[in-house]
Structure formats: structure tokens, C-alpha cells
Specification:
mainly alpha; Na+/H+ antiporter like fold; 12 helices
């Protein structure tokens, strides 16, 4: 019971603190936007670089993990198509449902991976992020382009999107350093210190972005998306990883990461790319509230 408390109380406690601070002594949205940019462009990439750079990649079944992740993302997108027809969603609402069904909150993932799985959990979590982010971006770029928001989808456009994504850059740097023998002495502690700050600040920024007032918007769509993202997708990923022969620890981690609520930046993406921002805010908030119950249950089952 103690490891569970030490993992979940800090993780969700930081989200709650961020939510209360935003609605209390620190209401300035510009301050929280600055924190989000700092975490996204500097702190989290540092965590990914040092974690992957020091990981023992030869021990990980990367292709089998990628296949399991692909099953989860493909299933999430396919079910989103079904939900679009079932609920009669227009294209903007559909894009928000897709984001809710396939994106993940990596801040929460790292906050749980460390206490539950130790240093190796952080390393594997960073590698999983390096596998998940490009696949998710591929789906999102093609989806928004198909809807006319960004023109026709192209390989060059997809490569450009990945090349300008700080998380992808952090993962790529980690893989390069790993191939060269690891993170240089002195650099690793610096990156590790920056990375440690990313989790606390990132989760507080998530809490600040949650809007409980939005929970009234299209409750049936919200319920469907958190059922898909928090229950169905991780179950399918677990089955795929098990069938592929992935070892239990890596299977548990990939299932955990694919069972996380959607990214808090999904709202920004929806607003900038022509999605339904109001519905996206509702989905993001309701999934994080529901995850308070589903993630402990998921971890207990995996354990």
C-alpha cells in the first residue's frame, strides 16, 4: 500500500495544488503559459535525453513495444471513428475525441514510473515516450490535414512537425548519446536536475489548465472518451504486448503509459488547429478526474 500512496498522492496532489494556485494567489494565465513553455521546451526534453541516454536499450524489445503501442493508437482512432458516427459529431468535435483517445500525459507517467518502477522505470518511460510521440503526431497531422486545416498531408510536413517537436528532439538526443556510450560526465547531473523539475512543474501546470466548469459539456462524449482511453486502450495494449512476448515489467510500463489521460496541451492543439476547444477542455478535465480511480486500479492489476 505504501508504494501506491507514495506514487499517487504526490502525482495527483501536484495537479490539485496547481489547480488551487491558479484559482487562488496565482491567477495570471501568462505565468502558467510561461511555465508550460519552460517545461515543454527545456525541462522535459532534458529528462528524456538523460533517461534514454543512460538506459540499457539492448535489453528492451523496441519493435515489439512499438507494435503494442501501434495497436493501442490504431484502436483508439478506430473507436473514435465509431463514436463520430454514433454521436453525429462534426469534424472539430471528432478531432477532440481523437486527441482524447490517443494522446497521453507524460508528466503523470513519469511521476508514477519513478516511485513504482525505480530508475529503470523512468528510463523505459522515456523510451516509450520516444516511440509514442511520433506515432501520435503522424495520426494528428494526417487527421487535421484531411480536414483541411493544414493542407494536404505530406511526408515533408510530417518530418517538419517532428523536427520542431522538443520532445522528439530530446528523445533523439538521448538515442544518439546512448549510441555514443552514454551522457558525458557532469552533463548527466545537469540534465537530471532539469528533468526532475519538469515533473512537479508540469503536473502543476496540468492542474492549472483543468476547468471543472467545462465538465457539463456533452457528458456522453466525455464518458465515451475516458472509457476508451483509460480502460479499452490499455487493455488492448496489454494483450498485444503479452502476445508479442514482451517481459512483464516492460508490459506493465507500456500499459500504464497508454492508459494515462490525454495531454493537457490537447486544448491548445484544438484551439490552434480548428478543433472543438470547449469539448477538448471537458475531455481533458474529466479524464484526469476519472484517472484518480482508474490508474490505481490499473497499476494494482498490473502488479
Amino acid at each position: 500500500m505504501v508504494p501506491y500512496l507514495e506514487a499517487f498522492i504526490p502525482a495527483f496532489g501536484l495537479i490539485l495544488i496547481g489547480h488551487l494556485l491558479r484559482r487562488g494567489p496565482f491567477p495570471d494565465p501568462a505565468m502558467w503559459a510561461g511555465i508550460e513553455r519552460l517545461v515543454f521546451f527545456v525541462l522535459l526534453p532534458a529528462l528524456l535525453t538523460v533517461s534514454i541516454g543512460q538506459a540499457t536499450l539492448t535489453a528492451l524489445p523496441l519493435l515489439r513495444l512499438l507494435a503494442a503501442i501501434g495497436v493501442g493508437i490504431a484502436a483508439g482512432f478506430a473507436i473514435s471513428l465509431i463514436l463520430r458516427r454514433l454521436f453525429g459529431l462534426d469534424f472539430p468535435a471528432f478531432t477532440s475525441v481523437v486527441q482524447g483517445d490517443i494522446r497521453f500525459n507524460n508528466f503523470l507517467g513519469f511521476a508514477l514510473a519513478g516511485p513504482l518502477f525505480g530508475a529503470s522505470g523512468l528510463a523505459v518511460g522515456a523510451v516509450l515516450t520516444g516511440l509514442i510521440v511520433p506515432l501520435v503526431n503522424l495520426v494528428l497531422v494526417a487527421m487535421f490535414a484531411h480536414g483541411g486545416s493544414t493542407g494536404r498531408p505530406s511526408l515533408a510536413g510530417f518530418v517538419r512537425t517532428l523536427a520542431t517537436n522538443p520532445l522528439v528532439a530530446g528523445c533523439a538526443a538521448g538515442f544518439v548519446l546512448n549510441a555514443l556510450g552514454g551522457v558525458p560526465p557532469g552533463v548527466a547531473p545537469l540534465l537530471r536536475a532539469l528533468g526532475q523539475a519538469s515533473v512537479a512543474l508540469g503536473l502543476m501546470a496540468v492542474g492549472a489548465a483543468l476547468t471543472l466548469g467545462s465538465l457539463r459539456a456533452r457528458l456522453h462524449v466525455q464518458a465515451a472518451t475516458w472509457a476508451v482511453k483509460l480502460l479499452i486502450v490499455p487493455a488492448l495494449v496489454f494483450a498485444a504486448a503479452t502476445i508479442a512476448g514482451v517481459d512483464p515489467a516492460a508490459t506493465a510500463l507500456v500499459t500504464l503509459f497508454m492508459g494515462l489521460p490525454t495531454a493537457s496541451t490537447s486544448y491548445v492543439t484544438a484551439r490552434q488547429m480548428g478543433g472543438d476547444a470547449t469539448l477538448m477542455a471537458a475531455i481533458t478535465t474529466s479524464q484526469h478526474v476519472a484517472a484518480i480511480a482508474t490508474l490505481p486500479l490499473l497499476v494494482a492489476l498490473l502488479h
